[in-house]
Amino acid sequence: MASTEEAEAEAGAKAPKKNVSYPLRILYCGECTLPVEYCEYMPNNDKCKAWLEKNLPSEFGKIYLGEKSPEGGDTGETDKKGRQKRGGRGNIKIKKKSEPQGVTIARVQRNKKKYVTRIRGLATYDIDLEQARKFFANRFACGASRTDEDEIVIQGDVTDDIFDVVPEKWPEIDEDNIDDLGDQKR
Ligand SMILES: [Zn+2]
Q1: Ligand 1 mean position to 89 CA, how many Å?
Q2: pLDDT tens-digit profile of 120-164?
Q3: Which terminal Cβ of the chain has fewer Cβ within 10 Å, N or C?
Q4: Where is the composition biased (Basic residues) (predicted)?
């Protein structure tokens, strides 16, 4: 049962007393140097397996072949050594697809073109430009800034809405008083 590697591992670890059945015996893998229970989580598990099968066949049987430990039943519970549960691999379950996975949303850019709406002429109706700017920002829930003496720029293309919104807000401006200049460079 005690191979050379095992004896060395024990001496280096907890210096077990001789002639005593030592329940805290930890076996280290000669390939990855971790306790052999963890080998199965290593990326080069094949090498670990080969090493273990060759050097510690009884451990190999317990860990990989599901053989019962001679020290106790394979209850699947954490044993006296505080090891991970036997058959740990079986406990790592892949989440079922039917379980709720949470909701994600994303904004997807469809078009690189971005528009702003420029409004001029409100001041000619004695409308306070700052008040108008705030109104547009609230109404369209977007940025609006005063860019000139009688010019407001609203982020986004709201030109169609302007025909409804402006006469509604300022009855002195009729829909016919609004001229859509179309696409402008600035
Ligand atoms: Zn290993």
Answers
A1: 15
A2: 898 888 889 999 999 999 999 998 999 888 888 888 888 888 889
A3: C
A4: 82-91
Which candidate, 128, 127, 154, places its Cα nearest to that of 140? 154
- Residue 50 CA to ligand 1 centre (angstroms): 9
pLDDT digits (tens, 9 = 90+) for 33-92: 888 888 888 888 888 889 988 998 888 888 888 776 555 444 444 445 555 555 555 555
Alpha helix segments (H runs only) across the chain: 4-13, 45-55, 57-64, 88-91, 129-140, 159-169
Cα distance between residue 161 and residue 163, in whole Å: 5
Phi, psi for residue 146 in degrees, rounded to 5:
-85, 120
Q: Quickly count: other Cβ atoms within 10 Å of residue 106's Cβ.
A: 4
Q: What is the DSSP string of 30-75?
A: TTT-SBGGGGGGSTTHHHHHHHHHHH-HHHHHHHHS-PPPTTS---
Residue with tokens 């954490």: 78
Identify whether the C-beta of residue 137 lies closer than 8 Å to the C-beta of residue 144. Answer: yes
